[in-house]
Amino acid sequence: MPSGHSLAARLLVVQMSAGEVGTDALTRAQPAAGQGLYAGAMTGYLAWLAPRIESLRVELPRRVAALRAELGRARRHHRLPDALASLLLGWELWLRFAHEAGALDEAGAAAV
């Protein structure tokens, strides 16, 4: 953990122990990364986002505020709901992209 209360409050730290990452799955995924599969997916995602940027500038602050309010009900550090809301919003957008690109069906896209 970095030192400093203010800095630490702005981070979402996920502590993991040895063995919690499926190294077999990670090893199987590495050749796809080397072949550019994930870079291609990110390129597609950015191309999908680009024509939506103006509407997202309106939509995203509203959505993050709603998520932050929902997540803020639990007793936590006051900055944690914002970090979690931003992370969740990114995941929602990625699922929307994956669905529209045909990589996820409706059920998969709804799995937030």
In short:
With 112 residues, this protein is mostly helical. It has six helices and no strands.
Structural overview:
The longest helix has 21 residues, at 80-100. With 112 residues, the protein is mostly helical. Helices cover 66% and strands 0% of the residues. 2% of the residues are buried.
Fill in the keyword field for this structure.
mainly alpha, 112 residues, 6 helices, globular
Blueprint (SSEs and pairs):
Blueprint: H1 5-9, H2 23-34, H3 37-49, H4 53-71, H5 80-100, H6 106-109
Helix pairs in contact: 4-5
Q: What structural class do the secondary elements suggest?
A: mainly alpha
For the residues shown, what is the average pLDDT? Answer: 88
The major sheet is characterized as:
none
Strand content: under 5%
